[in-house]
Design a protein that fits this description.
The structure is a single chain. The protein has 20 helices and no strands. With 459 residues, the chain is mostly helical. The longest helix has 37 residues. The protein is globular.
Length: 459
């Protein structure tokens, strides 16, 4: 009888304890950490609790960090866009032709692009959270040299220094943005890129007000933009401090094996080739506008350099809005659909642009910038979802490839403009978005947490 009574007492205590334990929260709910803490009142730290805590941190979106990298991106690209905006000034001061102007863009884009995949691959293996503020020091040095460069070769050196700073900034900051995303990868990439696009839109407006309006003497005013570089260094020091304490949010090493099983090498090669082709169509067309839009407006509609710079800023602002839309839209409806629509969808507008008046040209350029820009965040995250163990390398490769395409496009289009005229450039580039038809061959790629271990096949 005593044995039965003792057994009944034990069963009663176990039942009471089970009833008092809160139910297990479903995955992704806000109270996961609370449940884990209640289930372990003694504060013991075991593997399951540590894993739950890490998972909770991985699901949290750090908007303050995203705001930091986006702000630094805005300052970085604002300083970079000064180069393109002051082309008319440099052309008059150094007596440059279109080929030499294209060579300036090529110098910047190549120094910015060739190092990016290398920096990304290195930081995938060896995190260097404080590399971005160091890279921004190169940008600062390039700006100061650009303001006083006495000759064309020194001008190219200054542009190359700015490109080196960019090559460090983009892959490392993109890694930090993904780590802070909390699983909302498209949103994080859009917020990161929107800073760059806003900087590209603000750069021409500020350059028109602070540099171009003063003529040749205004080039020395570029040195004041060094204050923006100093502000970016301060911001990046804060982001780097956070990133150095949250390196556990990076993709775990086991993702390499998972990615290899999920995406066979033939599928990866085929997909990356298509993405590069789509980026070729996008960035060659953007190069025609970002590098020669001012000259097109001046030649066709007889605008002043100041007015054409303001209209370039309007186009770049539309690009910024499109970038902000593209990432979250890809999270919602799928990145393949966004890529398909954004590149092919702007083809009717690009085909009409070279043959309309000034008002229609401005309106069409806004629509083209809005639609075409939404592709890039979708393309970046699409590739990151495919190769989750190579986030830095993929970011550096695609950002670098975009920079290289922009530089190559500027140089090639400069030669075409010299021989056939600036209007002919836009007539030819109008057909580039038709390459968006290739998006139909892209496989359906989703983040690992959404697809499990399914192996996609190319369509």
């Amino acid at each position: 009888m005593q044995t039965r009574a003792a057994h009944a007492a034990i069963m009663a205590r176990c039942y009471a304890r089970a009833c008092s334990t809160p139910p297990v929260a479903r995955e992704g709910s806000a109270n996961v950490d609370t449940v884990v803490a209640d289930a372990n009142p003694a504060g013991l730290t075991g593997p399951s609790e540590a894993g739950s805590h890490a998972a909770g941190r991985a699901r949290h979106t750090y908007f303050s960090v995203l705001a930091g990298v986006s702000s630094a991106h805005m300052l970085n690209d604002m300083m970079q866009s000064l180069i393109v905006t002051i082309y008319p000034l440099l052309q008059g001061q150094f007596d440059l032709n279109f080929i030499q102007i294209g060579a300036i863009t090529l110098t910047f884009q190549l120094t910015a692009s060739l190092l990016q995949p290398i920096v990304g691959a290195v930081t995938d293996k060896y995190p260097l959270p404080y590399a971005t503020p160091v890279g921004m020091c190169f940008t600062l040095a390039g700006l100061l040299l650009l303001s006083v460069a006495p000759s064309y070769p020194v001008l190219l050196l200054a542009v190359g220094l700015i490109g080196c700073g960019s090559s460090v900034f983009h892959p490392q900051s993109s890694q930090a943005a993904r780590a802070a995303s909390g699983g909302r990868y498209g949103l994080a990439q859009s917020l990161f890129q929107i800073g760059g696009n806003l900087g590209q839109a603000l750069g021409p407006l500020l350059a028109a007000a602070a540099v171009l309006r003063y003529g040749i003497a205004g080039r020395s005013h570029i040195a004041w933009f060094g204050l923006a570089a100093l502000a970016a260094i301060v911001i990046l020091l804060q982001v780097s401090r956070w990133y150095s304490h949250h390196l556990d949010l990076r993709q775990p090493r086991r993702a390499a094996g998972e990615a290899a099983r999920r995406y066979p090498k033939p599928v990866v090669r085929h997909t990356v080739a298509i993405l590069f082709t789509l980026m070729f169509s996008k960035f060659f067309y953007l190069a025609s506008i970002s590098s020669y839009y001012e000259f097109f407006l001046i030649h066709r509609f007889h605008l002043t350099a100041h007015a054409s710079a303001n209209l370039l800023g309007v186009f770049l602002l539309a690009v910024a809005v499109g970038t902000l839309i593209g990432g979250p839209l890809g999270d919602r409806i799928g990145r393949k659909r966004v890529i398909w629509f954004s590149i092919l969808g702007c083809a009717p507008f690009t085909l009409v642009l070279p043959y309309v008046g000034l008002g229609a040209t401005v309106g069409l350029s806004v629509v083209i910038g809005l639609v075409l820009a939404s592709a890039f965040p979708a393309i970046i995250v699409y590739a990151q979802d495919m190769l989750t163990h190579r986030i830095g390398m993929i970011s550096g490769l695609f950002y670098g490839f975009s920079f290289g395409l922009g530089g190559l496009g500027a140089a090639v289009l400069g030669i075409i403009a010299d021989y056939f005229g600036i209007v002919f450039v836009y007539q030819v580039c109008a057909f580039l978005p038709l390459l968006g038809l290739l998006a139909v061959f892209l496989p359906d790629v989703r983040p690992p947490e959404q697809t499990g271990m399914q192996v996609p096949t190319a369509t």
